[in-house]
Amino acid sequence: MYDMKNLEHLKDLEKHAPEAWAAFLAFDAAAMKPGALPAKTKELIALGVAHTTQCPYCIAIHIDRARKAGATESEIAEAVMVAAALRAGAAVTHGTHCF
């Protein structure tokens, strides 16, 4: 189901919803632009979020960008483990609804 070639269909989103597509690209660029947080930090955050959403496209894109921004293997591993801890924590805290 997941194939990086599917991303070629992003052009269809642009074709059929050009204003929304342009707005998305502008927002994405603004959010990922280095500011108070450097690019590497933003990419590590994105990588962690990609693991919680379990999006293989995002994982592939942001692991590449994180490495290009200078992220080490240890930083990548820690970002993934933080994401895993938060996801597990959400399951535990939602477990309180059972009582």
Tell me the Rg in angstroms.
16 Å
Uncertain spans = none
Total number of distinct structural domains: 2
Tally of helical segments: 5
CATH homologous superfamily heading of the largest domain = AhpD-like
- At the fold tier of CATH, the topology name of the largest domain is AhpD-like
| SSE run | HHHHH
Biggest sheet features: none
Highest CATH level, the class of the largest domain: Mainly Alpha
Round the mean pLDDT to the nearest integer and report it: 97
Q: Please give the share of residues in helix.
A: over 70%
Q: Which terms summarize this structure?
A:
mainly alpha, globular
Descriptive report:
73% of the residues lie in helices and 0% in strands. The relative contact order is 0.10. The radius of gyration is 16 Å and the shape is globular. With 99 residues, the protein is mainly α. The model has no long low-confidence stretch (mean pLDDT 97). The chain has two domains: 7-35; 37-99, AhpD-like, CATH 1.20.1290.10.
